[in-house]
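<derive_structure_tokens>
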Amino acid sequence: MAIPININDLINRRVIEGARIEYKANWNPEPVLHTICAFANDTDNWGGGYIVLGIEEQDGLPRLPISGITKSSVEKISRELLNVCNLIEPRYIPVSEHFVYNGKDLLVLWVPGGSNRPYKCPERLSAPFGKSYYIRRLSSTIKANAKDVQELFALSETIPYDDRINPKADVEDLRPALIINFLHEVQSGLYEPAKTMQLRSLALDLRIAEGPAEYFKPLNVGLMFFNDRPDNYFRYARIEVVDKPDETGTGMTEKIFTGPLDRQLRDALAYIRNYIIKEKIVKHANVAEAERIYNFPYAAVEEGLSNAVHHKDYQVPEPITVTVTPEKMEILSFPGPDRSISDESIQTLRMVATRYRNRRIGEFLKELRLVEGRNTGIPSMLRALAGNGSALPLFETDDDRSYFRATFLVHSAFVDDKKNAELKPTKRKKKADVKAAVLEALATDILSSQELAAEVGYSTHRSGAFYRIVNELVEEGKIAYTNPDKLSDSNQKIYKR
């Protein structure tokens, strides 16, 4: 069997997060067994990980030059690996592949998150009957404590939906051409052998199908990426882009993008880039180079839509919708963020997920370079907006976390003169003046964000400048929210302390 990822990308950590790779200079079966068990338990739904034998680790990075292992030891290690993995309970065997990299022999173990977790293994091979559970904490393998074990058993009841067998489909519903194209794009060593492999063997190598011979079924993620119409199996697994140039709907256009998840994402982004995103060239006095600005920076939109595809719950029969008006672009997906992300984190744009909803979808999108590494998407989005001079995005959900809406405001240079005048604050241009106006407005009344924005000269509470001023006053203890624990509450009000 072979691993699907390109060996250069793996060793140089171009696609896989560092916490999902462990380097070992030599074969030491006991710690390797513990790490296999930890990756298989996959407590954060990252998708497991990789162990590279033949590279010494230094501060979490591969130490150069690579030492490698002897060619004669590869077969011996493979036999011993099978023996020690038989001690994992329930039984779990990783995928191993021999590589020659820069003239050095390496053995790479691919350890996807297991479907029968939790897994435990011996603490010491000299006493194989004393078994414990192991998990990953950042880049380290540790023995699970009592609380960790309790969480592991809770997770065992909820294998991510994308990693489950689809009983309504057959392995023949997977298209070999799409699989081979994927392997070519990610430059996998499996690409050439795949051309002559039987579909069942290929699906097994990619871990996109599993089960006994009489009930060998595709996994949901296999149908999402390697079937022409995933929406036949997952209702409304598609992206809809709606362009509304007028509030009445006059001249509205709607485009629907279907197909494998990576194709519909690429097609939708290409349409947005070619037909939605506009450019203006602004010439400044005494400056040689003109400034190029965009109504919506493409990199920010790319991050927003890619994240929606990655984190959508494909059991919810709702499409991902991108709605564009002259004032804004909204990306709506279902459901909302994981409960591990607080309301405050959403409002302050500091969303850091501790667990992925779709471990395998994320893995394929990363290998195709359609999403970034762990928790780097939002910072990349903010950098793109700042570089374009655009306002901060607005993230919105409800108390039940039933939906998630990311809103990008159009760059002020693309708002017509009348609306541009409305969106600008009144003559109180200095931050101190606006702060004073906020405190004055709240002196005798409790107002919503929208009402408060109107009082101090903004037409929308979604203005980045207004939002920052309100946050500063909250941090200074001068104003407060009526329900600080539920900042996304639609009935939220602000009052003066």
User: Anything to note?
Assistant: DSSP finds 17 helices and 21 strands in the chain. Residues 239-414 form a domain with the Heat Shock Protein 90 fold (CATH 3.30.565.60). Confidence is low (pLDDT under 50) at residues 420-428. The CA atoms of residues 158 and 242 lie 35 Å apart.
